[in-house]
Amino acid sequence: MNSNYRFSFGPWNISEGADPFGPEVRPAFPHEEKFALYRPLGFEGVQFHDDDVVPDIDNRTPDQIGRKCAEVKAMLGNQGLVPEFVAPRLWFTPETVDGGYTSNTEAHRRYAFDRTMRTIDIAREIGSKAVVLWLSREGTYIRESKNPRVAYERILATLNAMLEYDKEIEIWIEPKPNEPTDHAYVPTIGHAVALAYASTDPRRVKGLIESAHALLAGLDPGDEMAFALAHDKLGSVHLNDQNGLKYDQDKNFGAANLRAAFNQVRVLEEAGYGNKGEFIGLDVKAMRTQAGNCVTEHLTNSRAIFLHLVDKVRTWDRELERQFVEARDYEALEFAVMKHLMGVK
Ligand code: XLS
Ligand code: MG
To answer: Any catalytic annotation for residue 52?
Structure first.
């Protein structure tokens, strides 16, 4: 199979994940042992949260953080791995319960700000030029608790401060409409791109589109990707799937809607995504009830599904498509797509 794609995932994608209402089905797998699994599984990019690089980050001195970064950088080099991005994990601390950048409490906004600047330092020290902002808690459970206009201004001010702090770093905003909040402030790539253009350096503010997040917003992930690509703002993707409006499922790519997955690959292929070194990130989790000690099949299976879909895109009869489009015979076009995906002539 022909492929020049490079794949990435984060340590949180190996084995982790639990059903909040059931017993433990998988023991946690030691964090430090995960990195040795990347290459054998067919992945070379590592996506990090700040505390994936520096565990217990809030209790570490700058020296300790520097040493840990050097260790991780050496480990990546030894394993032949590339750090794709670092994201501040602004959702597990008491300071960020009501959001970080958009919190009403000044001390909490300061915490989020400091941690974000530290994330930039960490990214640079391990050799990455991208910081991902999944704005997890920047929203509300109760709308009247924050001023949404002020919230957007605060998010924009944070982006500008990041751009000012480091003149080379890129910021990739990962939109998601809900969970953990009821409503998030940057629910779609349209919002992220608007923030990019409003920022002091639009070139360096891009998006990371996760299929499931687009689906949670009721949108087509392929269209969301195309929108970002049209603005040259697709920093990365988190391919996965989602079965309707439920909890964030992080299912295997294509497992719920194969045709939508085909169309995501089609959009990426047509844009030459990957030619500038962009990764195919897979933000997939093992099924909640899947037993096993170190579960990785969801990663290898999603990667394989992606590659099969690349093949489907490349073998799709474009001339037939052109004829059906010209004749406005959409029933015939749809049936041809379905037969192609089902592998029938
Ligand atoms: C959560 C997000 C998260 C980001 C990285 O819904 O997908 O895992 O990708 O912070
Ligand atoms: Mg994600």
So the answer is: yes
